[in-house]
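Margin note: ligand = zinc ion.
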Amino acid sequence: MPSTNPKSTPAPRPGTPLTVLVDAEFARDLTVLMRTGMGAAQAVGEAVNIVAGAYANAWQTGRIPAGVAPKIVGFDIAPPSTARNESPCAAQGCKRSVTQPVRGRPRRYCSPACRVRAHRSRKVTER
Ligand SMILES: [Zn+2]
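Resulting structure:
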């Protein structure tokens, strides 16, 4: 990304260790991010990635002149993935997925029809 800001300095090269003084506000912010299980370095990388994406977008779209820091006034959060709340239907030959309830016993079948079909096929094989 070419910069028009004459005060800009080159970024450290990949693999270069970076030392940052942690003040009280930085420590609080790191505490929030690290509650997700990330380490401090990963949290810093994640935060820099988000801000850099906002800057790059502001410059690419021409909303802010390149090299000028935009004021970030908001951001979006994607809804949590539903993938972990789904599992494949246990009925033989069924390709549908089962949406698991938030509470209670996990569901094995996608529908009453699949549950009954699986029960009938078990009864046949048990004889
Ligand atoms: Zn099914």
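The helical segments are 24-34, 40-60, 112-126.
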